[in-house]
Every structure is written in C-alpha cells, then in structure tokens.
Write a structure and sequence with these properties.
With 240 residues, the protein is of the alpha+beta class. The protein has 2 domains: 1-40 and 171-240, no CATH class; 44-158, Alpha-Beta Plaits (2-Layer Sandwich), CATH 3.30.70. It is built from 9 helices and 4 strands; from the N terminus they run H-H-E-H-H-H-E-E-H-E-H-H-H. The chain starts with 6 loop residues before the first helix and ends with a helix. Its main location: membrane.
Length: 240
C-alpha cells in the first residue's frame, strides 16, 4: 500500500519538530559565522585598466577585418600579461616572498567583448600589496610590449588605488551565513521527516486502519481514575 502524506500532516510534522529545525539552522549559521569571521583570511582586490589604441585611424568607420585583428591583438595581450616574460620582472621589482606561480594565480586578466579595454585584477591578503602588484604589472607590460611586439599602443587608463577603508572581496560572511541558514533548514527538515518515517509506533485509529487494512468499528473511551470502581464499591455490589 502506497503511503501518502497530506498537507495538514506535513504542517503537523514541521510543527512537531520546529524546535529541532530551528536549532539546526542556528547551529549551521553559528559555525559558518565563526569560520568566516575568525578562521578564514580576508582577501582584497585591486583593479586597473589599460587601453589598447590603434596605430592608425582608417578612413572607413567600420571594417570587420580591423575589428577581428584588434580582438586577436587584445587576446594576445591577455596572454602576455600573465606570461613569465612580464611576471618575472614584476616578481623581481617587488621582491616578493612568494613564488612566480603563486603570483600568476593572484592575477586575473579579462576584457569586455568588442572592447579595447583590458581589465587586470589582483587579489591578495594585504590590500596595499594587491595595489602594488596591479600597478607594477601594467607598468612593466607597457614597457616590455614595445620590445616584444615593436608597438607602442598601450596606455594606462586607470591605475589601481588604495581605498581608505578597503573591503575584502572574500569571504563574504553575510552571504555565507545566509547560505548556511538555508542548508541548515533543509537538513533540519530532512531529519524531521526521517525521524517520522522511522517512527513505527501506533498513535491513533488511522494508524490501525493502515496497519491492519480493516475498518474501525468502535472505540473504547478512556476511563478516568475517578470513574474506576473501587474495592469497597465492588464489595457492596456483591452483598446486594
């Protein structure tokens, strides 16, 4: 016989285990909050932009071949920025106490579609280091690209700047705690339904009907202690 659960039964189960579900949510939020605020190291980000200008201005305002050439050039620049030819010089200039591979992992290079602007983002546990790495990288790239590709078409559009009160980009404690609340709620609800499924005790006439698959013909009402016959009343009934 297939077991089904009605909407009122669903609410009754949630009401019955509400305290346990609430405790699971609070526990999850507390653990994640402690880890986010006290355990995880804040990571800061600094960004800078460079503009790749054209060497010459064509008479025609729109040329698909020129656009494709510019896009290929920008894609090439994106690769060169994170290449050892650039980062090894940045590594030496800043006298960093890390490895070139670790420096590469801190730098992200991207550009918007059909745009000549390249965005360079750097993450680090120290905000001033992120700013130094970003600005040094674009300066070295601007100098070295003239030697590597014999071009002078790179301009620094906006250097990275140190904010007065830098805010870490990760971790995000509020977001993490919100996710933990949802996960804790799901776990609590899952445990509640699991406990109800594992509880096979008979609680009422409906459970008897489902277990025996027979209709209930009558019920025995509970008798209170006051209504129970005492030993003296039994003796009086026998004498009569």
């Amino acid at each position: 016989m297939e077991e089904t659960i009605s909407l009122p039964e669903l609410f009754n189960i949630l009401k019955k285990w509400f305290f346990m579900i609430l405790m699971m949510m609070i526990f999850a939020v507390t653990i994640v909050g402690v880890v986010s605020y006290l355990v995880l190291t804040p990571v800061y980000q600094a960004s800078t932009q460079i503009l790749v200008s054209q060497d010459k201005v064509e008479q025609q305002p729109f040329n698909s071949q020129d656009i494709q050439t510019n896009l290929q050039l920008i894609n090439t620049y994106n690769v060169i920025i994170k290449s050892p030819a650039i980062l090894s010089i940045v590594f030496k200039k800043l006298d960093m106490d890390t490895t070139p591979a670790a420096l590469t992992s801190k730098i992200t290079v991207d550009s918007a579609q059909n745009s000549q602007v390249i965005n360079i983002s750097v993450t680090d546990t120290e905000p001033f280091k992120a700013v130094d790495i970003a600005n040094t990288t674009v300066e070295v790239f601007k100098e070295e690209i003239q030697k590597l590709m014999k071009v002078d078409n790179v301009n620094i559009l906006s250097p990275a700047e140190m904010a007065e009160n830098p805010t870490p980009v990760k971790p995000n404690p509020k977001l993490n705690m919100a996710i933990a609340a949802v996960v804790g709620l799901m776990i609590g609800v899952g445990i509640a339904f699991l406990l109800e499924y594992l509880d096979t005790t008979i609680k009422g006439e409906q459970d008897v009907e489902e277990l025996l698959e027979l209709p209930i013909l009558g019920l025995v009402s509970p008798i209170s202690e006051k209504e129970m016959p005492t030993q003296a009343s039994r003796q009086r009934r026998k004498k009569r």
